[in-house]
Amino acid sequence: MVTIEIDGQKLEAESGAMLIEVADKAGIHIPRFCYHDKLSIAANCRMCLVDVEKAPKPLPACATPVMDGMTIHTKSAKALAAQRGTMEFLLINHPLDCPICDQGGECELQDTAMGYGSSTSDYADVKRVVKDKNLGALINTDMTRCIHCTRCVRFGQEIAGIMELGTTGRGEHMEIGTYIEESVDSELSGNVIDLCPVGALTSKPFRYTSRPWELTSSETIAPHDCLGSNIVIHSRFHEIKRALPRDNEDINECWISDRDRFSYEGLNNDRLLQPMIKERGEWKEVDWETALTKVAQDLNKIKDEHGANNIGALLSPSSTLEESFLLQKLMRGLGSSNVDHRLRQQDFSADDIAPVYPNLGLRISDLENLNAALLIGSNIRKEQPIAGHRLRKASLSGANISFVNGIDYEFSFDVAETIVVAPSRYTSQLAGIAKALIDSGASAPDGIANLVASVSVNDAHRAIAQQLSGGDNSAVILGTQALHHLDYAAINALATAIAKMTNSSVGSLTDGANSSGAWLAGAVPHRVVDGAAASRSGLDAQKMLANHLKAYVLLGIEPEFDVANAAQAINGLSTADLTVMLTPYVTDAMRAYADVLLPVGPFSETSGTFVNVEGCWQSFTGTIPSPGEARPAWKVLRVLGNLCEVDGFDYTSSEEVRDEVARMSSDDADLAGGWRCPTELKANANEVRDSIQAVSDVPLYAVDATVRRASALQNTVDAKTTQSVGMNTQCAEKHGLSNAEQVRLSVSGTEISLPLQINDRVPDDCVYVPAAVPATVMFDFSQQAVQIQR
Amino acid sequence: MPEKSKQPSLFSASVKAEIDKWIKRYPADQKRSAVIPALHVVQRSNGGWLTTESMDAVADYLEMPRIAVYEVGTFYSMFVHEPTGRHKINVCTNVSCMLCGSDEIVSHLQKRLGIKLGETTPDNKFTLREVECLAACGGAPMMQVNRDYHEDLTPEKIDEILDGFE
Ligand code: SF4
Ligand code: FES
Ligand code: FES
Questions:
Q1: Is the CB of A166 less than 8 angstroms away from the CB of B52?
Q2: How far apart are CA B140 and CA B92, in angstroms?
């Protein structure tokens, strides 16, 4: 520790800290452009010059380490003159046209010029002009405004991990850009909009739609992944204009993913504005009372005639805790335990030993402290970009991050080992790692040694085994493709065994924003709130759809995209006596199979709570009122509960619902769950001769109904590459197929036809089929073996 | 999901061998240190200028982001991105040189060669380029012809220098 003095204030500081950090902590403002506390120090803008006693010239506060006894003046005549001089230089080439600049009103340059510049300039010559760049669908450029602080360049190199922007040319000719016409494709790219201190990089969808001072801001939680990034939404006249990050060092730091930033565009499309009922095939707009009375009557009638077991409810894993709780309470009040949010899960055989709610097994912020991790079936970088960023930090500080995946995904960090195999071979790979551990003397949980006795161990298995046992901070994490796997229970059991043998944590990265909350709230067939066993267990999501129930209640989902086997689901829903959808959006597909459509608000129009994957409850309030007759889903469910004459639906606020769940939840919930040794390794049981295996994932801009409607995101490269199926060179040759050729794939009686993209990221004898995109709606993702049709 | 497929290398065997010689001088995990010599090698083999494809090939070969190679390739004025004449004249017009009369130097060069800045003589003998400070301010005004610096220029001195090229 050293003692310094800034503007007469005595301060204790960490030795080696930069002056600007110490001043920031003490609340003393020093102007800056290039400095950012999450980026490396560039010291190229010179705006932070301060007057340090005994130093001959003003020094840049961002690059001057504090030394004991230093006396600093940030507002002395010398400091102010230096700052004014810098400001004048910066403005030489900067256009002075703030009124037509999108950044006006929230521009660091504008503010700093007001505070530290002089009101006139001596510069009278021409200003340089720089051609704008086309960086893709999300980021707009006005490169003449750039002041070359290089924050955006450093962000790419240091945070996003892919260097897309750079500084080309020199001196007067220096430019920021991609040099060749190329879009910026990082899943975190939008953060450069916040970082850019001027109007050089701005949001394309937001551009010219409002001025910052016209916007109302409300704090909320991002609804697209299991992290729950903290965001603020800006709206004007009850219309959402943009989403920005809110600092939360425990979760998203100061970043958000592009998905969380730009998804708001989807909130306005295809909205259902009025309750509707289908009578003799004709859709009719009705008032709420008519619609809900009809639903209550029909549900009670079906219950009386066919038994409550003939009613089922499916909800999105991004429904709020309150919605999830009320929907299961309604179902159970009616006497049915058929309620589930696990729309893509296939294997439910480990339900009885599941933890109270699925969880990461460690804090999100601790991901960056890991020294080894094994991820199974995960494209963490694209699926949970903020978690990917944390893992990248671990990797940069030397952690060994390894994967067992069905696709050789591209990561933004160095990967230690990647095992890329067909889905049917996940278990044998995990068994190989377990065996390697046993060979090196680890004591395995009961039964594992026998189970893996005959598997072959390769170098990759040994390397992963060694990495995980090496340090004292290791984790085994299941990604969504493991959670959706036909053999999930065995994968989970083997992953847990590996974790036990290596003293690693074990957990998963779940679907949606609130999988953990849905479990906690009892929105699973076999458990009620807080993991207590349900008195009567119901059907899981797949069985509900396969069993042709008489009535379905769907909350916040689009079955054709959100379930594993859409053809089967649509069939089940169309033939049911009653299909009620509580949905913000309406499509022709829905009109075909639904009987009642109830307009509810998306996350932005309701209060509620998301429980993230580390178990953190984050409540938020609605941002804007719903359009038309749409209402928050919790209110709709409350009224429906009352109309169905189910007890305990007298809530007056969503907070009351939340508090009730909180009261019933224990602080020391069992987050580990039980363990059971798999009885066999079904290694190749699913490999059928003459067929190939489907590998699939849900592309990042297809995860939910809102994202799928967000137009700018749908125009990114990440979204555009989902309109084909992928095979590697070997597989394509074997089947006599060439690039771009139309391929017909059939599985369980349905067929899709898509162009082929030869892609060596796909393993041998596999075909990659993206899920949840229009082109593959009818594909059955619950099967591994698919046929190629000639 | 972006696809991955193998790209054939653009380099001839001799170019590769020459770059490899440079790579060997640096630690194995710091291949990118060889970027400047590699660009020189590639530029020489391509008639004195760099195409975007050739910079991409250098990037891929040295396992560095393409934009990082563009940064280097556009920063140094010894790298050229358009077809050029046999001899490159880089004339500095930055502050020190300007104060010492680079305007006159430039206009003399233009008159004598009959071309403007950024152009190449019809016989493809000279290309004249304006560059930023070449770190020879002590001898301002200055120009660089191919790899040689010529300082304290006067029109007469320029004529003498250019006469030296057939
Ligand atoms: S574009 Fe913005 S962030 Fe990037 S260097 Fe220019 S001013 Fe800085
Ligand atoms: S903030 Fe210190 S030089 Fe830019
Ligand atoms: S200004 Fe011409 S060499 Fe430096």
A1: no
A2: 8
